[in-house]
Specification:
The complex is a heterodimer. By secondary structure, chain A is α/β, with parallel strands linked by helices. Chain A has helices spanning about 45-50, 75-80, 95-105, 110-120, 140-150, 170-185, 195-200, 220-225, 235-245, 265-275, 290-300, and strands spanning about 5-15, 20-25, 25-30, 35-40, 60-65, 65-70, 80-85, 155-160, 185-190, 205-210, 210-220, 230-235, 250-255, 260, 285-290. In chain A, α6 (about 170-185) links the parallel β8 and β9. Chain B is mainly alpha-helical. In chain B, about 75% of the residues lie in helices and about 0% in strands. In chain B, α2 (about 15-40) packs parallel to α6 (about 90-125) and α4 (about 60-75) packs across α8 (about 165-190). The two termini of chain B are about 20 Å apart. The chains are: A alpha/beta, B mainly alpha.
């Protein structure tokens, strides 16, 4: 049986009449990099805020490392968790060193004189001197935010859009850092719009749309599901889907202007067969799905984003 | 809790607003000493009265600075880090309040200490009457209690509104209202034996440092410079209790109310 560092049961958050998170049952395995995928406003950040204690659930519960959210011990458990939710939280007027010292003080780290230079070196900010964080580039601020997170040797890290604003080398650095830390046993939950990057690190995925967690899947199972598919463009996808099923294709999905077949297809034979039935096909394209396609197929195409 | 306070104090002492306010305080103390020395009225007693008078010390700069400090925790997002690090919201709020007290008291103690210390060294203390010790002691206590209230109020609005302009405005409006409520009640009930003055004592937390005035507190707080010193020596025990109790019960209301609301609200 898998060991979960985070488990939620019917986690729900309402803001007035708006249901931001709707009965989410989430399972984050220990040692995983859990990619959180969803459109803007789908509820990813709200779920992270709920898990971090920044927001209070309207309904449902969650457990961190097996400790229930309503248990008093949850505060102790949080000592092993770090998070960047929305943006790194830094004091703009303070230098990188002083920002880390500030964090060391509230974490209760007493040997900060040894810890801080090491942390600065780890994120490549050791030569920033007295320069205030407000004068840092976005990438530097992001790296300083990560250095703050690592101070308390977390076993779980939540990163909300960590690659936002980073240049390609910054993205690569962050990716390598995540992979290294994951190898050391740190579990990650990462939400990102840069799905191509997420694919390089994620071991598990949670797909969310309109506040609902629609699917959880491991990266290996996802690879199986993202098998080759064939898209047939048509002005009448409804009839096309019906005819394809009549022809014996079982794994067929209708999109606004096309139909996707996940079964093995011989395009020429298929086109001939459809032509006989009087079905006009505008275009045929065979490809493999990536995470983005998979997500879109889950939510029923781009119209629902 | 200790870790939160240490961290907040570190941030406070690194804060330029705090440093500049301290420097302005020292400058203001020097200026007052200079002016009074120039007109030949420099002594510890008069400088003490000047120092505890809100119009001649920092007055509204204290709540303004406290609101700015408190709101910055939200605008920078550092309050989120403390919650994520596993500190309870109650402890975080208490940490904000205690840091606010350190800010207020360090400002006032440095200012008042310099003012009274230097002026006494130059012109002597010049104790005016029998009972001076009781007067100075009680007045210092009113002064400290009043600023505990100002701190509690500022942190309450800063933490709950998370907006500098709005928090400052509502803090000032509240100070005005607390001075006006007794007057309004009296006018409404028209009870002759329950005068605005004795009602103010139990309702207005800044009343006793407002030098026995019938006017609304904010005007004392901002502009009442002189003191009818002779009146101050006729304090009844009830007045002393009211002078201490009123700001402290208001402080408790704002502190506990603020901590409760803060603990039950989402942090953005």
């Amino acid at each position: 049986m898998e060991n979960y560092v985070i488990e939620t049961q019917g986690l729900t958050k309402k803001y007035g009449d708006k249901l931001a998170v709707n009965g989410v049952n989430m399972h984050v395995p220990q040692g995983s990099v859990y990619g959180f995928v969803g459109e803007n406003g789908s509820g990813k950040t709200t779920i992270m805020r709920l898990l971090m204690g920044l927001a209070i659930p309207t309904n449902g519960r969650y457990a961190l490392f097996g400790t229930d959210s309503k248990d008093r011990k949850i505060q102790e458990v949080r000592h092993h968790i770090s998070a960047i939710v929305e943006a790194p939280s830094l004091v703009p007027s303070l230098s990188a060193y002083d920002n880390l010292k500030y964090a060391c003080l509230y974490y209760g780290i007493t040997n900060y004189k040894e810890v801080i230079p090491e942390a600065l070196k780890n994120v490549g900010l050791e030569n920033t001197g007295k320069k205030a964080a407000k004068n840092f580039s976005l990438g530097m601020r992001q790296r300083l935010g990560i250095a703050v997170l690592l101070l308390n040797n977390p076993t779980l890290m939540l990163l909300d859009e960590p690659m936002n604003g980073l240049d390609p080398s910054g993205v690569a650095e962050l990716r390598n850092l995540i992979i290294d830390l994951n190898k050391k046993g740190i579990t990650f939950i990462i939400s990102s719009h840069i799905l191509s990057e997420l694919e390089k690190v994620a071991t598990h995925y949670g797909f969310i749309s309109h506040g609902k967690l629609i699917k959880e899947i491991s990266a290996s199972d996802l690879a199986l599901e993202c098998q080759k598919y064939t898209d047939l463009k048509s002005n009448d996808p409804v009839t096309l889907e019906k005819e394809l099923k009549a022809l014996g294709y079982t794994n067929v999905k209708e999109f606004p202007n096309s139909v996707r077949i996940y079964d093995d297809v011989k395009p020429l034979e298929l086109l001939k067969a459809l032509d006989k039935k009087g079905i006009e096909i505008n275009d045929v394209k065979t490809s493999e799905m990536n995470v983005e396609d998979y997500y879109l197929s889950l939510i029923g195409g781009e119209k629902n984003v | 809790m200790f870790n939160i306070i240490r961290a907040s104090l570190f941030k406070l002492f690194k804060d330029w607003t705090f440093r500049i306010t301290m420097i302005v305080g020292l400058g203001l103390a020097g200026l007052l000493i200079g002016i009074n020395a120039g007109i030949g009225q420099l002594n510890g007693h008069s400088m003490f009265l000047a120092g505890v008078s809100p119009s001649q010390n920092f007055g509204l700069t204290v709540p303004i600075n406290l609101v700015v400090f408190t709101v910055s925790e939200f605008t920078f997002g550092t309050i989120r880090n403390k919650i994520i690090a596993g500190h309870s919201k109650f402890k975080i709020y208490t940490g904000l309040f205690l840091t606010g007290l350190v800010f207020t008291f360090s400002l006032m103690i440095v200012y008042l200490g310099l003012l009274v210390g230097i002026s006494s060294a130059i012109g002597g203390f010049n104790a005016a009457a029998i009972g001076e010790g009781r007067f100075i002691g009680s007045y210092l206590a009113y002064f400290l209690a009043a600023y505990v209230f100002v701190t509690s109020l500022s942190v309450f609005f800063g933490a709950l509104m998370r907006n500098i302009g709005g928090s400052i405005s509502i803090s000032v409006v509240t100070l005005v209202l607390l001075g006006m409520i007794p007057l309004i009640i009296t006018l409404a009930t028209a009870q002759a034996d329950f005068t605005p003055e004795n009602m103010q004592m139990w309702i207005n937390p800044l009343y006793m440092i407002g030098f026995y005035s019938n006017s609304a507190s904010i005007f004392n707080f901002l502009s009442k410079a002189g003191a009818d010193v002779s009146k101050l020596y006729y304090q009844t025990t009830l007045m002393i209790i009211a002078g201490l109790l009123t700001p402290l019960y208001w402080s408790a209301i704002f502190f506990l109310g603020g901590a409760f609301i803060f603990s039950h609200r989402d942090i953005k």
